[in-house]
Amino acid sequence: MLDRLQQLGATTLQVFERLGRAHILFYYILVGIPSVILRPRLLAAQLFSVGVLSLLIIVVSGFFVGMVLGLQGYNLLKDYGTASSLGIMVALTLVREMGPVVTALLFAGRAGSALTAEIGLMKATEQLSGMEMMAVDPIKRVLTPRFLAGFISMPLLAAIFSAVGVMGGYFVGVGLLGVDEGAYWANMQYRVDLYDDVFNGVIKSVVFGIAVTWIAIFEGYDATPTSEGVSRATTRTVVHSSLAVLGLNFILTALMFGDN
Amino acid sequence: MSQQDDSPLVEIRGLRFARGDRMIFDGIDIDIPRGKVTAIMGPSGTGKTTLLKLIGGQLRPQEGTIRVDGEEVTRLSRSKLYALRKRMGLLFQSGALLTDLDVYENVAFPLREHTKLPEPMIRDLVLMKLQAVGLRGARRLMPSELSGGMARRVAMARAIALDPMMMMYDEPFTGQDPISMGVLVKLIRTLNDALGLSSIVVSHDVQETAAISDYIYLLSGGKVVGQGSPDELGRSDSEWAQQFLQGLPDGPVPFHYAAPDYAEDLLHGHEARRR
Ligand SMILES: Nc1ncnc2c1ncn2[C@@H]1O[C@H](COP(=O)(O)OP(=O)(O)OP(=O)(O)O)[C@@H](O)[C@H]1O
Ligand SMILES: [Mg+2]
Predict the structure, then answer these.
(1) How far off is chain A from B261, nearest CA to CA, in Å?
(2) What is the three-class DSSP state of B88?
(3) pLDDT tens track for A29-45
């Protein structure tokens, strides 16, 4: 019994210690931002590997999700004779929820795990301490550009996801099921609000971008420098950032759309 | 920038460092003179790599002082420490090359990070450093395409890229064939004398190291167990020195990591399994 208690205490302490380290690291990452802005090439390289390379999976998934929304939405709406508002349903679902959330989940699996593994391996092979000894701050040189790349990529990827999804809904709804094309676009345009819907969706994906990239970078930087340690850190990145995204999404949805 | 020239470049006093419960250094004093090659030798696991990391400010000792060129490493602010590190080169035991850059870019890395030199000059400098370690022809290879010995030589070229005031070599000779070993041995000495560096060489290769070093420290069990010029040590009647320099299995230096009695351990393990 006492052992259990002791263990519980130790685990709790460890969790808080890790949280503390994560926040300190976050601070140093932010401090590094000005120096990265002065060296846009570093950022560009990371934007490519974090953002551009995630594009394919985002586009394909967006299209599939949009098609499913079109199909399900049509089946539901046509019973009430409102199939013409299919465009609204597809667009709102994507822009408010599915776009940011699914993009963040895919991003965690595609880019987040890669970030953790890369940074963890750099640590395990002493590349990070090698940089330190060359008087190069690995946080500024390695971590901050990756963080910024994730921060910038996520909203863009989410926007692309939603746009492609709307096309997928269009393809199924208008192209295959015969919803009126004019109604699909016009109703969407009429009902989807720039501030309430699009802007709130962007805020969500910005928050998710910070959360996922931060978790991924921290897990890599804090990994035990062995192959086993890196593999466990990679798993933790995917699990923790997925949970964080879903939890944060609930909070944000409640705050943004809770009262209407 | 340098202080009065007869003061040691690195001055370690009363250094204590423990990892967990394990005491790695138990009060050691070491002076690394300017312009000389100083060797640090000792059995595997005594903390030679740890010592270099302490000098480089990557680890903090529990007690004691480490002065490098008059500056107290343990108390420097981050920016001062980084400024000091620009003047130190450390060759990692593992090489620690950046795996996403090729050989050329690895050597160019410190130059690009710390200088605003134009590209043609960086190219010349990189090629000169690579030529010195005999790998100018390998400049477009990636680190994964290098052998262990080659990787170490690239790391060496990178460590001297910024023309530091001191070089620390962690096991520079491991994994080198006799030819490149000979070249490296000469190179360390030549670099030291031509560039007016001060060098610290950590190595197990007694003959080679003794041949180029001016002074040797022998570490064992967290203490300095012998010191002196290679000749002095060779002539000394210290058991430590004799055992180490001649590679004898028996003597005061234990070959084994601290462990319970061997026979006891075997018997005990047997019993535990049967139960
Ligand atoms: N990260 C670490 N965590 C805990 N203990 C460590 C760590 N790194 C090294 N040690 C311990 O510190 C001691 C000294 O290690 P160090 O790497 O400095 O030895 P060394 O003298 O360089 O050995 P070698 O000649 O084999 O390279 C070893 O006993 C090792 O067990
Ligand atoms: Mg070592």
Answers:
(1) 30
(2) strand
(3) 999 999 999 889 999 99
Alpha-helical runs (H) found in A79-179: 86-92, 99-107, 113-124, 127-133, 138, 144-170
| B86's tokens | 């620009």
End-to-end C-alpha distance for chain B, whole angstroms: 68
Q: Do A132 and B90 touch (CB under 8 A)?
A: no
The answer to whether B228 and B236 are in contact (CB under 8 A) is yes
CA B151-A233-A101 angle, 5° bins:
125
Q: What is the pLDDT of residues A237-257, one digit of tens each?
A: 999 999 999 999 999 999 988
Atom of ligand 1 nearest to the CA of B257: 29
Please check whether residue A116 is in contact with residue A233, taking contact to mean a CB–CB distance below 8 angstroms: yes
pTM of the model: 0.87
Q: What are phi and psi of B245, to 5 degrees?
A: -65, -30
In this prediction the ipTM stands at 0.81
Q: How many C-beta atoms lie closer than 10 Å to residue B120's C-beta?
A: 8
| Letter string b/e over residues B145-155, b meaning 16 or more CB atoms within 10 A of that residue's CB | ebeebbbbbbb
Residues linked to residue B16 through DSSP beta bridges, in sequence order: B26, B63
Q: Which residues pair with B17 in a beta bridge?
A: B25
- CB–CB contact A130 B85 (8 Å): no
